[in-house]
Amino acid sequence: MTYLNGLLWTQQSWFEQASSWIDCELHQKDIKRINSIKQLRVRHWSTVLQVPTSLGKIYFKAVVSELAYEAALSQVLSHRYPQCMPQVLAINGEQGWLLMLDGGMTLRDTLKIEDDIKHWENLLPVYAKLQQDCAKYFHEFLELGVPDRRLAILPVRFQQLLMDSETLGLNQPDGLNVLEYQCLQNQTDLLVKLCEQLANFGIPETLHHGDLHDGNIFICDENYSFFDWGDSSISHPFFSLHSTYDCLKKRFKLAKNSFWFERLRACYLEQWAEYETKERLEQAFELAQQLSPIVAALRWLPVLSTMDAIHRNQYMEAVPNLLREFLSTISVR
């Protein structure tokens, strides 16, 4: 599907089709819609609708076919972990449609009222426990279509990425230059070595959210729940803090050596104490932080594939910048 199909989100015929499906699902559940459906957000790869009902606000999300697994994955997670997932009412797996109850206020909106980084200290253990339990079901998640980015296959994915000159933006403004590209090619053996080293720790690969920032976390009655699993994959769990750290840098203006980064890392790693010693967990975490820009770059591929060349140019910096980050992390080895 190209971005041209993404324009469906703004077409009246698509809106009517989605509204009809929503009304049908609500009717089957004896929920009454009490006002018109409102389109809250339109992205190249997704859209969100708000539905006022007798149960309060209900939300509908549609994604491009490349991310359609998000609906089925969200439904499974909602049923299995209701304490940390919004309640999913219905899905259309083929269309990539998802209907769910209001999950509460996002952490991002909460932080506008109470600018407290300690929320992360409270929620990261919850997320870690979720990851640990999900490790039992990763084969099931793969069958749902969740991308496979486990350590054993990551070097292959990296080599495939290096063959995609369009995504790399070779010799284009904001893209990679020839020297950067050559440096990346020279690091393929090192990447294999890093993956093997990380795999040698006794930490199970599992569900990795892929975009764990304050806009994808709800707070309701002091409980945290996680949503927007469209960037998820099966990979090393410690990769998840890459986007979290980026979020914290922007939100709280934290330096790389911030006390809070160390504290939150310790808070998260404590939950993995049954797998490795504290020292080895810290070693694994550092390896994961070196590799995490590669995994973050790979999550862009399904999204970029939905766009035509003109709209891809708007995101030209995304993958090259992450690959530059990878180069910077290995340069200090």
Automatic annotation (TrEMBL):
InterPro entries: Aminoglycoside_PTrfase, Kinase-like_dom_sf. Residues 57-245 form the Aminoglycoside phosphotransferase domain. Pfam families: APH (PF01636). This is Aminoglycoside phosphotransferase domain-containing protein. It comes from Nostoc minutum NIES-26. The lineage of its organism: Bacteria, Bacillati, Cyanobacteriota, Cyanophyceae, Nostocales.
